[in-house]
């Protein structure tokens, strides 16, 4: 918690950043994704990992330490990644395996919520079977989709377009029938304009008004399109990666958030639909939380563009209440149901474990 504000991190991952397994150029993700969107402030320098520390297979224990023991996050949504449109080497693990999310939930009971991702969404019957398995065996709260995936059987790439009524509509209809309320969609970060843009969401979000669609990375690109799609009240705007702009481009963050919140016609007026997220473990959640808690909308943007002052109550909504309302749950009830375990006692003390403690302990032991 931050003071009396319950914090939900809307996206966390247990990434495998080993170059031999990810297929990435050594050092590239570290430089652009980790260092590139992490705080440069002197008080946050311990939150920056070296390349050797970063290019690892993050374990569930390391994820739990990073998100809960080392930060003020109370709950987190674990998003499963198959590969995010990247061709991974034969025999490699998934980018962020669902099994790691399940294990993290076992380590931190009551605090982790699962969003698995279909392996091959173009295979409708297989995806429907996956959803049944996830609901029955994992107790998932959402399903996560990516706009471009590779078929490991053929090596061919597939754009996953949400206006494909033969592929997507039956899947969404089945997810809805199994009690799923939230569909997460990776957008705005990727090199394929058509797939990573938002125009394919128009008909879909209108056709399923009883599903909530969570646009992940909202505002990193396609801001104008996001404003249009975000007019619909079942569209939520998740700040994963966009939150990193607080570290390196705070005015750009202010301009994006201001457009989401400005209370004028033809803007989303989304103070009740912005979702906080850090994207851990690609970066540490605590410095971003501190920067957001201290964030103030620049006076000239309020004067010249009508952007609102970002108040404590607005931050309370974005840091947790909006995510809970999107899922139809009560944060106070979730807090009350948490076990009285060692993690709960550590959180109650208000003392944070040093940054990346589990990661650095593993490196020293290796």
Structural overview:
There is one protein chain. The protein has 366 residues and is of the alpha/beta class. 41% of the residues lie in helices and 11% in strands. The chain has 18 helices and ten strands. It has helices spanning 19-22, 28-35, 51-54, 60-69, 98-107, 124-138, 168-177, 193-196, 202-207, 223-229, 245-248, 250-261, 285-294, 299-305, 312-327, 331-336, 342-349, 357-365; strands at residues 8-12, 75-79, 112-115, 142-145, 148-150, 157-159, 182-186, 212-216, 235-238, 274-275. The strands form three sheets. It has a five-stranded parallel sheet, with helices on one face. A three-stranded parallel sheet has the order 1-2-3. Helix 4 crosses helix 5. The chain is globular. The two termini are 33 Å apart.
Give helix and strand order, one letter per element, not per position. Answer: EHHHHEHEHEEEHEHHEHEHHEHHHHHH
Q: Quickly count the helices.
A: 18
Biggest β-sheet strands, sense, barrel: 5 strands, parallel
Number of strands: 10
Radius of gyration: 19 Å
Distance between the termini: 33 Å
Question: What class would the helix/strand composition place it in?
Answer: alpha/beta
Shape: globular
Q: Strand arrangement, largest sheet?
A: 4-7-8-9-10
Keywords:
366 residues, 3-stranded parallel beta sheet, alpha/beta, 5-stranded parallel beta sheet, 41% helix, 10 strands
């Amino acid at each position: 918690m931050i003071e009396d504000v319950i914090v939900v991190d809307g996206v966390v991952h247990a990434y495998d950043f080993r170059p031999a397994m990810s297929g990435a150029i050594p050092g590239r993700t570290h430089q652009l994704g980790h260092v590139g969107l992490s705080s440069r402030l002197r008080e946050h320098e311990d939150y920056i990992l070296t390349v050797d520390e970063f290019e690892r297979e993050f374990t569930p224990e390391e994820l739990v330490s990073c998100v809960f023991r080392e930060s003020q996050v109370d709950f987190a949504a674990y998003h499963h990644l198959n590969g995010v449109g990247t061709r991974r080497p034969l025999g490699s693990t998934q980018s962020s395996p669902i099994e790691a999310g399940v294990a993290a939930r076992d380590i931190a009971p009551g605090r982790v919520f699962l969003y698995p991702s279909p392996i091959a969404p173009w295979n409708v019957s297989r995806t429907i079977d996956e959803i049944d398995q996830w609901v029955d065996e994992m107790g998932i709260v959402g399903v996560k989709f990516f706009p471009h995936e590779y078929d490991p059987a053929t090596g061919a790439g597939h754009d996953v377009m949400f206006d494909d009524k033969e592929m997507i509509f039956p899947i969404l209809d089945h997810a809805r029938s199994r009690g799923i309320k939230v569909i997460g969609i990776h957008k705005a970060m990727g090199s394929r304009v058509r797939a990573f843009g938002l125009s394919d969401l128009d008909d879909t979000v209108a056709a399923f008004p009883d599903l909530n669609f969570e646009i992940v990375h909202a505002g990193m690109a396609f801001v104008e399109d996001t404003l249009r799609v975000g007019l619909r009240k079942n569209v939520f705007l998740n700040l994963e990666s966009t939150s990193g702009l607080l570290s390196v481009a705070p005015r750009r963050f202010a301009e994006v958030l201001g457009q989401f919140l400005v209370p004028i016609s033809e803007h989303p007026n989304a103070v009740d639909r912005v979702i906080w997220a850090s994207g851990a473990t690609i970066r540490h959640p605590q410095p971003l939380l501190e920067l957001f808690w201290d964030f103030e909308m620049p006076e000239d943007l309020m004067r010249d563009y009508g952007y609102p002052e970002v108040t404590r109550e607005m931050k309370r909504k974005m840091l947790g209440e909006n995510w809970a309302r999107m899922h139809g749950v009560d944060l106070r009830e979730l807090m009350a149901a948490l076990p009285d375990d060692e993690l709960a006692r550590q959180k109650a003390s208000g003392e944070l474990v040093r940054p990346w403690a589990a990661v650095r302990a593993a490196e020293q032991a290796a």
